[in-house]
C-alpha cells in the first residue's frame, strides 16, 4: 500500500479529572480541533480516559478497565472515521477476568481498529505502581500498518529501552509513537526536576537519531493528587514533543493543555540513514549477549 512521504501529525496534551466522560469528551474535542488545524494523524496520551490511577494499589481501579473492542474504542473509531484520520489512543484493557493490560490502539479512518500494542515494560516505583495492574504485553514489537505508514507504537516506560525502538525500526517502523504519563514528585527540587526532564527527552531523541526515525511523544499535564501518606501526588510535566528523523525538535509543548502539530517527513529517513548508516555498521555477530540479564565477569571466563 502506497503511503504519503509527508503528512501533518498532532499530539493532544491534556489534563484529566475524576470524571471519565468529561475526560473523553475533552479528548474528542481536542482531536477535532487538531483535525481542523490540518492533522492527519493524532496521538493521545497514556490512559487519557481517567486520572493516572497507578499512583496507588487499589482493587477498585480495575473497574476502569474495558474490553477491546469496547465502548471507548468504538466511540473513538467513529471519531477517526468521521474526521478521516489515523488516531492512536491508550486504554486500560480487560482481556479476561483478572487479566489486564496497558494497551494502545490504532484506528485508521473508516477501517476502524487496525492494530494494538500492549505495553511490554511495566514499572513498579513509588507513584508508578503499574505491576499491580498490568500484565506485561505479549504482542511483541511489531509496527502497525496504516494508510499513513507503519507506526511503531510503544508506551511510556518502553521509551527508556533502546531495544524496543530498535526492534520496531528493524521491522520497518516509519515513525515511533510514545503515549506517556510521567511527572515529578512535588517534593523534588527544581534541579532534580530539570535533570529528569532532560533525561526523558534525551533518551527519546536518541532513539530518533540511532534509528533515523521521527518520534512523537504525548505526555499528560496537571497535578493529580493521591490519598496515600507516602506521596502527595504527581505533577505531570507535559513537554510533549515531535522530532524529525535525526532527533531535531520540530515542536515542543509546555506545561499547559494544548495541541502540538508538525509535518512528518518519512522520506527524510532515507537520506538520514545514508549519511549516518548505523544499521549498516551494526555488529550483529557480536550482540548475542544482549539476551542475558547481566554479564557477570566470572561467568564470562
The count of helical stretches stands at: 6
Taking Cα atoms only, what radius of gyration do you get, to the nearest Å?
19 Å
- CATH architecture label: 4-Layer Sandwich
Gross geometry:
globular
**Helix coverage percent:** 10-25%
**Which class of secondary structure composition applies to the elements?**
alpha+beta
CATH H-level superfamily: Carbon-nitrogen hydrolase
Count of DSSP E strands?
A: 17
The total domain count is 1
CATH class: Alpha Beta
> What fold name stands as the CATH topology?
Nitrilase/N-carbamoyl-D-aminoacid amidohydrolase
Taking the sheet with the most strands, its summary is: 6 strands, mixed
Low-confidence stretches: none
Average pLDDT level: 96
If strands are numbered along the chain, what order do they take across the biggest sheet?
5-4-3-2-1-17
Sheet-strand content, in percent, reads 25-35%
Separation of termini? Answer: 50 Å
- Element string (H = helix, E = strand): EHEHEEEEEEEHEEHEEEEEEHH
Amino acid at each position: 500500500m502506497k503511503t504519503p512521504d509527508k503528512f501533518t501529525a498532532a499530539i493532544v496534551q491534556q489534563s484529566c479529572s475524576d470524571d471519565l466522560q468529561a475526560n473523553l469528551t475533552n479528548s474528542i474535542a481536542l482531536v477535532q480541533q487538531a483535525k481542523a488545524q490540518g492533522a492527519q494523524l493524532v496521538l493521545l496520551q497514556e490512559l487519557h480516559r481517567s486520572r493516572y490511577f497507578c499512583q496507588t494499589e487499589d482493587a477498585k481501579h480495575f473497574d476502569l478497565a474495558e474490553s477491546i473492542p469496547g465502548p471507548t474504542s468504538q466511540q473513538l473509531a467513529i471519531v477517526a472515521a468521521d474526521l478521516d484520520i489515523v488516531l492512536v489512543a491508550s486504554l486500560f484493557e480487560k482481556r479476561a477476568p483478572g487479566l489486564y493490560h496497558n494497551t494502545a490502539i490504532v484506528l485508521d479512518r473508516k477501517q476502524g481498529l487496525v492494530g494494538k500494542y500492549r505495553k511490554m515494560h511495566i514499572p513498579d516505583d513509588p507513584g508508578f505502581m503499574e505491576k499491580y495492574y498490568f500484565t506485561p504485553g505479549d504482542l511483541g514489537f511489531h509496527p502497525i500498518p496504516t494508510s499513513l505508514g507503519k507506526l511503531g507504537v510503544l508506551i511510556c516506560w518502553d521509551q527508556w529501552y533502546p531495544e524496543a525502538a530498535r526492534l520496531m525500526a528493524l521491522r520497518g517502523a516509519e515513525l515511533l509513537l510514545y503515549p506517556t504519563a510521567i511527572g515529578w514528585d512535588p517534593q523534588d527540587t527544581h534541579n532534580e526536576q530539570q535533570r529528569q526532564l532532560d533525561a526523558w527527552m534525551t533518551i527519546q531523541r536518541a532513539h530518533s537519531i540511532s534509528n533515523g526515525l521521527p518520534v512523537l511523544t504525548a505526555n499528560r499535564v496537571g497535578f493529580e493528587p493521591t490519598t496515600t501518606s507516602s506521596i502527595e501526588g504527581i505533577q505531570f510535566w507535559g513537554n510533549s514533543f515531535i522530532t524529525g528523523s535525526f532527533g531535531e525538535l520540530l515542536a515542543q509543548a509546555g506545561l499547559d493543555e494544548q495541541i502540538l502539530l508538525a509535518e512528518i517527513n518519512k522520506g527524510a529517513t532515507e537520506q538520514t540513514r545514508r549519511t549516518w548508516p548505523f544499521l549498516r555498521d551494526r555488529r550483529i555477530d557480536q550482540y548475542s549477549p544482549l539476551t542475558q540479564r547481566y554479564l557477570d565477569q566470572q561467568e564470562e571466563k
